[in-house]
Specification:
single chain; binds 2-acetamido-2-deoxy-beta-D-glucopyranose; 2 domains; 6-stranded parallel β-sheet; alpha/beta; 12 helices; fucosyltransferase activity; transmembrane helix; 5-stranded parallel β-sheet
């Protein structure tokens, strides 16, 4: 508590300093572009890995509207010139970065967050504050999930979606595929790998893994919480491919919260055991993963043992690879005009704030999509 008090004081004093720093009245750079101000740094990067956030980048992405610019310096333009603000729903960012002094009618305040509901923060005083939501949740006004599953032939995005049209029973087509899968399986030498850096999660995944180990599943723990090391991510994928299973356990169990952990498994050719609050049929091809939440440790351990003993059943878990491929969500949208930032630019241009919620953002964020419970199980 003591430390927390000192910390808050530090934050408060830096806020004063930051406010004076950011409000320095420099002469504005003239432009007709619509301006989207990133109010806080997004993990140190203000342009969200969307190039430099310039109209060129909106053009390259094939956006319908390209006259937008993501800007990071508050003092470059007078406040009323800003068309949209991006506010990160993260921890004490509001205390640290404050809120605009005045609000103009045309301005759109966007709540964005790619951390789970559990690891985010919206202050109570930010009720009746936001106009749009921009998060990993599929029912956001603008959704930006962590990854997409694409049809390998047509390159169309299949999932995540509320109701993806999966090919449910996959069969092997061609001996080449058979050989690839056989070779992949033959190269496997270990049971399960888990790469983890945060050893105390809300979801209690550590206990779950401990239970698996007690049940005779040999889980090799990589990173800060274990004894195995893989220094470079590329090597890591090679290492993971040697494992039958990859532990893709989220740190909190929230609706639609499935992160890059699962793609790591898919990219490495390992079968993920996924622990998530998401409805996984909306995210992953059928028979491509083990649902650790549904199964529980005892059944999951049984299933892992069964699959390792029955190579034919195990191979079926890899059949999806013939038909689908997994990539970051912006893999396609970066070229086809469907990048989430195209939607932001469109909203800013048309003034049509497409709010799908009929609810205050703060309440929406904490409630389930069916409205009959919380957004997170744990
Ligand atoms: C955005 O939301 C605020 C607060 O609810 C509201 O006053 C304002 O009119 C909205 N702005 C737009 C452009 O819809
Ligand atoms: C999961 O999503 C699918 C596809 O939308 C749906 O049919 C199913 O009922 C959902 N399951 C649960 C438990 O909500």
């Amino acid at each position: 508590m003591e430390m927390r008090g000192v910390f808050s004081l530090l934050i408060a004093s830096s806020a004063v300093w930051l406010t004076s720093y950011y409000c320095r009245p420099d002469p504005p750079v003239p432009t007709n572009n619509k301006l989207i101000l990133s109010w806080e740094p997004h993990y140190g990067d203000y342009s969200f890995s969307f190039g430099h956030g310039t109209p060129e980048d909106f053009k390259k992405a094939g956006c319908k509207y390209t006259n937008c610019e993501i800007i990071k310096r508050r003092w470059l333009y007078p406040l009323q010139r800003i068309d949209a603000f991006l506010f990160h729903g993260y921890e004490d960012y509001e205390i640290l970065f404050g809120t605009p002094r005045v609000r103009f009618d045309h301005q759109i305040y966007i709540f964005y967050c790619f951390e789970s509901v559990r690891q985010s923060y919206i202050a109570e005083r930010r009720r009746d504050f936001f106009n749009m939501t921009f998060t990993y949740r599929l029912d956001s006004d603008i959704a930006w999930p962590y990854f997409g599953v694409y049809d390998a032939e047509t390159e169309e995005l299949v999932a995540p979606s509320f109701n993806p049209q999966w090919i449910s029973t996959m069969v092997l087509k061609g001996s080449k595929v058979q050989q690839d899968i056989d070779a992949l399986i033959a190269s496997k030498t270990h049971t399960a790998a888990w790469l983890v850096s945060n050893c105390h999660s809300v979801s209690g995944r550590e206990e779950y893994v401990k239970k698996l180990q007690e049940l005779g599943i040999d889980v090799h723990i990589y990173g800060a919480c274990g004894t195995y090391k893989c220094p470079f991510s590329e090597n890591c994928k090679k290492i993971i491919s040697k494992y039958y299973f990859y532990i893709a356990f989220e740190n909190s169990l929230c609706e639609d919260y499935v992160t890059e952990k699962t793609i790591t498994a898919f990219e490495s050719g390992s079968v993920p055991a996924v622990l998530s609050g998401a409805n996984l049929t909306r995210f992953l091809p059928p028979n491509s993963y083990l649902d650790a939440r549904e199964l529980g440790p005892v059944e999951l351990a049984k299933e892992m043992k069964r699959l390792m003993a029955d190579k034919k059943s195990y191979a079926e878990k890899l059949y999806w690879r013939q038909r689908y491929k997994v990539a970051k969500y912006t893999y396609l949208t970066e070229k086809t005009g469907h990048h989430p930032f195209c939607s932001v630019c469109e909203a800013v241009n048309t003034g049509k704030v497409i709010t799908k919620r009929n609810k205050e953002v703060l309440d929406w964020w904490h409630s389930s999509q069916t409205g009959d419970g919380g957004s997170c199980l744990m």
